[in-house]
Amino acid sequence: MIRIALLLLAFFALTGARDPILVPEVSQHEVKVRQGFTGTELLLFGAILDPAGTRAARGYDVVVVLKGPSEPIRLREKSKIGGMWLNAASTDFRSAPSFFAVAASRPVKDIVDERTAAIYEFGTDFIQLSPTGEIDPAEQARFTSGLVDLKRRQGLYEEDMHGVKISGQVLYQARIALPSNVQTGTYTAETFAVTNGRVVASAIAEVEVKKVGFERFVEVFAQRQAFFYGLLAVSLSIAMGWMAGRLFALI
Q1: pLDDT tens for each residue of the chain, 251 residues long
Q2: Where are the beta strands (DSSP E) in 50-180?
Q3: Is the dihedral of CA 243, 245, 247, 250 positive or negative?
Q4: What global pTM score does this model have?
Q5: Residue 113 contacts residue 143 (beta carbons within 8 Å)
């Protein structure tokens, strides 16, 4: 990381660039999910430097966007028909992030305009979900709002508009909590430096979330031996049901 920063500083000094550079870091580049995992907290920190490698002469706002692996999602809407709640309308999203968190030094609406916020996904209102098929814009907005609300209640989508602390116009830090139900895979933490409503620098750090121990064994077994995994799951369910029945019969 230090070597890369030095190379960037030399490049900017030679080219005479004026925009700042970001040197990001993450407290954990690897999160291990094992039995009893209750979640963890990531500390995203770094420095904002002028091309000469000195402290930034002007103040910057910082926005951090942490995204989990994307996944296709089919969202269904339930309607009450004949006194029963049944699946009615539905829509598909090609690439909804499994986890999405934004932290900023102050409210995004005070930092950039809506167009810029949409380009860089500065908030849950600007997540690029890539819906499939033809859908009415109003209907799409309703389903998008429903998906975001569902993910928020699961603790997987969050915003903190005062979550980034900046010290001396140089150092910044943000804390983002990962809940116990996070999906495994590669997470990207992208940091943006903003001034006068314009993004002037960005940098990316990665975090790998993976299962270890018995959980990892089960995951690999389920992926590589899906048929036998399903057969074993059904057999265990039948055996547990039979045992429960016998126990109740003896009581």
Answers
A1: 444 444 444 444 444 456 778 888 899 899 988 877 888 999 999 988 876 555 555 678 999 999 999 988 888 777 766 666 666 677 888 888 999 999 999 999 999 999 999 999 999 999 988 777 666 777 788 888 888 999 999 999 999 999 999 988 788 999 999 998 999 899 999 999 998 899 999 999 999 998 775 455 455 545 665 665 566 667 777 767 767 766 666 66
A2: 61-67, 70-81, 84-97, 100-104, 157-160, 164-167, 171-178
A3: negative
A4: 0.74
A5: no
